[in-house]
Amino acid sequence: MSVTVLLAIVWRELLRFRHQTSRLVSALVRPTLWLVVFSAGFQNVLGISITPPYATYITYDVYMLPGLLGMVLLFQGMQSSLALVFDREAGMLRLLLTAPTPRWFVLLAKLVAAAVLSVVQAYVFLIVAALFGVDMPRFAALTLLPALVLAGFTLGAVGLLLTVYVRRMENFAGTMNFVIFPAFFFSTALYPTWKVQDSGATWILAVIRLNPFTYVVEMIRFAAYGRFDAVSWATTAAVGLAAFLLSVRGYDPQKGMLGRKPRDEG
Amino acid sequence: MPPAVAAPAVVVANLSKRYGRIQALDDVSFTVPVGSVTALLGLNGAGKTTLFQILTGLFVADAGRVSVFGDDIASAPVRALEHMGIVFQQPVLDLDLTVGQNLGFHAGLHGLRRRRAADAIAEGLGRLRIGDLAGKRVRDLSGGTRRKVELARALVTSPRLLLLDEPSQGLDTRSRADLVTDVFALAAERGTSVLWATHHVAEVASADRVVVLHRGRVAADGTPSGLSEAQNVDTLEAAFLGIARRDAMA
Fold first, then answer.
1. Is B74 part of the contact surface with chain A (CB cutoff 8 Å)?
2. Residues 225-254 of A with CB under 8 A from B
3. What ipTM does the predicted assembly reach?
4. Is residue A247 helix, strand or coil?
5. How many helices and strands (H and E) does chain B possess?
6. What is the tally of structural domains in chain B?
7. Which of A73, A237, B62, B91 has the highest CB neighbour count under 10 A?
């Protein structure tokens, strides 16, 4: 039965995604602009020396690519959460929560659906990047997969946790910006930590090291080059698991935020 | 040894729920006998929707308990929910999907495999005379037809209990009459137990049993004719208004 429930939830998300082609377009245009425009402007300013996992000097666009993959996943994670908030306002969430299935499993299925969409978009972006001449090793298509799945799950779980506390569409859109941009800029997506260290911005360096998104990006970066960074994997998995467990608690009517306020009182 | 007695479809026992200073439900108790159509009558703000939220496990009661065919909604929610087909007060359909896709999604949530789900969907839509709409997007349907789709969806899993929370809200007179006819016919044919919350008395005049909820309390509980006789009036509507007025003055 659980597999049927899981498939039903993933199937609906895929159907909805198919109807929202603008979602895929915007998911690709955003990082593509960064890759093409931003990296062109900074190509000569930000030379990247040999740092793991790179075995040689690399150009800035090559350095940016894992960060931009992270960006695709980050936006998709928030987008899935926004869809959940929309489902709540449209009433569809009630249909999910009154299904004869443990609530944690319904939420897990939502995360699996979000991760599937994330991975699909990430691979499409990889193709777009390759068309612009920014490539990764051939084997990256394979070695990236588990990292993208875990990253998609974790970022989806963080978004899910947000939906526990931010319950209205208009508030959630604002919160998305509040989460996405600090997470992206205070990470290693755009520049390595040693660059920040060299500039003497120690507090920014501290925030970068505390930012879970940094570990998501590094996990993807190392995976793309066939390397396994245990710290990044462990941190990303721990954050994802913690966010998921807190979300399950938040969606439990006996313990969480749900069921505290009346709705459509009749 | 006495024969085992089947549990009622719904037992609501001493249920209370408070939102801050508002007492939404106050020591509410009633039962829905198996195979009966029970109406939950109440004016706006009576607590009907809160009661439904607790019945469906969306909210938790401060005190009291609810069981569905013997399964407690708080301690065994999955088993209790398996018995239910629900039509919510607010329309709950994915407008971007087709009728068939909406029902298929619901069937999947209830663990129905593809072949069985397809049969159940075809039967449910056919039963409500909307079999030709399976491929239509919900967004393109009228409000009355959407309600029929929701009723068909609730029937896909062949529930033993049908919960209807003001299902006729926003419907025109004809659609409302269709809905009433369909629900009563279904209950008679399948022996489905029904709990129907509404403030439109005419919809539930043929119900087997009526529970009047007023300001979060059970103000009356009995058969339609019994309530009319007790109020010394001719119709259920007059009885309902009399009970509401009496309680408002108390």
1. yes
2. 253-254
3. 0.86
4. helix
5. 8, 10
6. 2
7. A73
